[in-house]
Amino acid sequence: MDQHRINQILKQYAAGALTEEEKKELEQLLAQPGRDALAERIAALMGEESDTSYTITAGKNLETFARIMAADKPLRPKLKPVARWWWAAAAAVFLCLAAGAYFLLNPGRQSAQTAQQQQVTPEKDPGRNTAVLYLEDNSAVELDSAGNGFLTNQGGARVTLANGELAYEPQPAEGPLAVTYNRIATPRGGEFSIVLPDGTKVWLNAASSLRFPTAFNGEKREVELTGEAYLQVAEDKARPFEVKIRDVNIAVLGTQFNIMGYEDEAGIVTTLVSGSVRVTAQGHPSRLLVPGQHAVVENKTGALYVQKADVAEEIAWKNGSIHFESVNIRQIMRQVSRWYDVDVEYRGNVADMDFTCTVSRRDKLSKLLTLLEMTAAVHFTMEGNTIIVQP
Q1: DSSP count for the chain of H helices, then E strands
Q2: Where are the transmembrane segments (predicted)?
Q3: What is the C-alpha to C-alpha distance for residues 69 and 64, in angstroms, rounded to an integer?
Q4: Residue 249 class from Cβ within 10 Å (0-12 exposed, 13-18 middle, 19+ buried)?
Q5: Torsion angle (degrees, nearest 10) of CA 332, 334, 335, 336
Q6: Residue 289: how many CA atoms within 13 Å on its side-chain side?
Q7: In the chain, where does DSSP find H-type helix?
């Protein structure tokens, strides 16, 4: 069968428009030896069909690839370690694709053999549950080394630890309690969750901290955040919940939302998952969000604007994933730096391009970097604890 005809059949299959005659042709094609070559052709075809924008959608291509290669037999759930390289390479490329000019499968690309031989040197274990609790008297408790169970009493609350989650349980008291404050902080390469005295649950991302009272006695429930957190706020209509992050204030009643406010990012981003929140920034009218929106307060200008959010991407960290949709390499590496506790240095003219990529946060660093390298757009080495990014 000539190459032009193969292309036609594969395009028809991807579109779900095969005729009975074409189905038979595909069955005959798959029955022939040399599935490696067919896999390469499918991968190349998908690359050719993509436009020249910075990214293409990974999911559809990967699904199509799997369906075509499994058309003559059930798809195995996992590839064996000895599985042919093009199977693994094509799947990886579709999970992480850069600008069209750098597609691994386009003219001018590195050969499959050369790409196969590349090894990503940098390796680090992923982050883990680790944090430090700072008490009212400034004493510190290393939570990752503390045993499960009762830790201490703080300002009318019983503090316990259970499997990576800190919890503050209010205790009966005679009369009003003096307000005391605690702070929980995660390092780079750390994450932790905490249940506040009102039942609100907070997931802290790496390099973040939360300052909170050990009892909510006033008309409002107020906490202060640095870095990034996902909050599931306990509803209490009589006492609104407020999060302060630098000069931005987020007010809620009962809702779920994410706040990302690292100082090395472009701005403070509040992403609403459910309920409603009101975002206030200095010099701007407050903005009320509906689910699926995020409010951005730019670090440089202080400008406040509301947009439709990619909620799945913005809360992926809380759900155990590293997920990017058309995200700049420098933004990706900032997240890599925080989660894998590494420094990043750029050498040479690293292209300012976007990537689409998904891996588990439990994967080692090399898996993510290997996917990025397979685009032939960037390469990585490691010196000490510093990742060197080069074209």
Answers
A1: 9, 24
A2: 85-105
A3: 9
A4: middle
A5: 80
A6: 33
A7: 3-14, 20-31, 35-49, 58-69, 85-95, 112-117, 311-314, 329-340, 365-373
Q: Where are the domains of the chain?
A: 3-117, 128-314, 320-390
Distance (Å, rounded) from C-alpha 247 to C-alpha 141?
29
CA distance to 179, 331, 381, per residue, from 198 (Å): 14, 35, 47
Cβ of 245: how many Cβ atoms within 10 Å?
A: 20
Q: Tokens representing 188? A: 């780079």
Identify residue 233 by its one-letter amino acid code: V
d(CA 166, CA 112): 49
Q: β-strand 190-195 against 128-129: which pairing, if any?
A: parallel
Which fold would CATH assign to domain 128-314?
A: Jelly Rolls (2.60.120)
- What are the per-10-residue average pLDDT scores of the chain (391 residues)? 65 66 75 60 51 35 50 38 35 40 37 41 87 94 90 90 92 76 97 96 98 92 97 93 95 93 95 95 91 94 93 94 90 96 94 84 92 85 93 89
Give the Cα separation of 149 and 53 in Å (integer). Answer: 53
CA distance 370 to 100: 18
Residue 200 near residue 221 (C-beta atoms within 8 A):
yes
Q: What type of residue is 102?
A: Y
Give per-residue pLDDT as tens, 164-179.
899 999 988 776 677 8
pLDDT of residue 345: 96
Residue entry with tokens 């509301």: 306
Taking domain 320-390, whether its CATH number is 3.55.50.30 is answered by yes
* Residue 118: per-residue pLDDT: 44
Type of residue numbered 19: T
